[in-house]
Each structure stands twice: as structure tokens, then as C-alpha cells.
């Protein structure tokens, strides 16, 4: 009977130690799973950060490229503006010359008209004077 009790006690101890071993294994598995989930989560975070870093790097490179192109365009834009200003100034000068030429033509035309009117007036006055003089002499 003692032997049976010892055997039962040993079995209970074995079961208890087995339970303890099972719990230890269970904890190890849970820790391993938690660790692998944490590792996967960390890998995902690292991938996301890597993507963000890459995107930021590409964005900064794009900004640098746009800035460089803007600096390259500045001289061309300045030249185009200067050329446009020169064309505008040339157009103004041409319009001013045309205005002055027309003004001079009008002045010449007005002078000829005035001269012609004075000639007609002088002719008419001479004619009237002669008519008047003939009338006086003929009386």
C-alpha cells in the first residue's frame, strides 16, 4: 500500500512537474509568439519609416531639382523681359516718330493752305482794287 501511495504521489509530482513544464513551455511559446509579433511589428514600422524616409528624400531631391531649374530660368526670364521691354520701347519710339511725322505733314499742309489763302486773298484784293481804280478813272 505504501508502494501504491508512493507511486500515486510520484505520479502527482510528475503531473505537477509536467504541469509546471507545460506552463513553462506555454509561457515560452507565448513569449516566442509575442516576440515574433513584436519583431513583425518592428519590421513593419521599419518598412514604413524606410518608405517615409525614401519619400522624403525623393521629395527633397525634387525640391532641389525644381529650385535649380528655377535658378536656370531666371536669366532666361530676365533676358526675355529685357527683350520685351526693348521691343516695347522700340514700338513707342516708332509711334512717336510716326506721330511727329504726321504732325509735321499737317503743319506743312496747313502752311500751304495758308499761303494759298493769302495768295487768293491778295489776288482778290488786287482785282477789286483794279476794278475800283478803273471805275474811278472811268468816271
Order of helices and strands: H
What about the largest sheet? none
Distance between the termini: 196 Å
Low-confidence stretches: none
Percent range for helical residues?
A: over 70%
Output mean pLDDT.
83
Strand content: under 5%
Radius of gyration equals 58 Å
Task: Give the tally of structural domains.
Answer: 1
Shape call: rod-shaped
Number of helices: 1
Features:
mainly alpha, 139 residues, 1 helix, single chain
What does this structure look like?
The model has no long low-confidence stretch (mean pLDDT 83). The chain has one domain. The chain is mainly α. The protein is 99% helix and 0% strand. The longest helix is centred in the middle third of the chain and has 137 residues, at 2-138. The protein is built from one helix and no strands.
Write the layout of secondary structure elements.
Layout: H1 2-138
Biased composition (Basic and acidic residues): 77-105
Region (Disordered): 71-105
In brief:
With 139 residues, the protein is mostly helical. The protein contains 1 helix and no strands. The protein has one domain (7-111).
Amino acid at each position: 500500500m505504501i508502494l501504491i501511495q508512493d507511486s500515486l504521489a510520484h505520479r502527482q509530482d510528475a503531473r505537477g512537474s509536467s504541469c509546471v513544464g507545460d506552463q513553462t513551455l506555454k509561457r515560452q511559446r507565448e513569449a516566442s509568439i509575442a516576440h515574433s509579433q513584436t519583431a513583425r511589428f518592428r519590421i513593419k514600422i521599419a518598412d514604413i519609416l524606410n518608405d517615409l524616409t525614401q519619400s522624403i528624400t525623393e521629395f527633397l531631391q525634387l525640391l532641389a531639382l525644381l529650385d535649380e531649374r528655377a535658378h536656370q530660368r531666371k536669366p532666361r526670364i530676365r533676358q526675355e523681359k529685357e527683350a520685351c521691354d526693348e521691343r516695347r520701347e522700340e514700338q513707342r519710339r516708332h509711334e512717336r516718330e510716326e506721330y511727329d511725322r504726321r504732325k509735321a505733314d499737317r503743319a506743312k499742309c496747313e502752311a500751304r493752305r495758308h499761303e494759298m489763302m493769302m495768295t487768293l486773298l491778295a489776288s482778290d484784293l488786287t482785282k477789286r482794287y483794279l476794278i475800283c481804280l478803273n471805275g474811278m478813272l472811268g468816271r
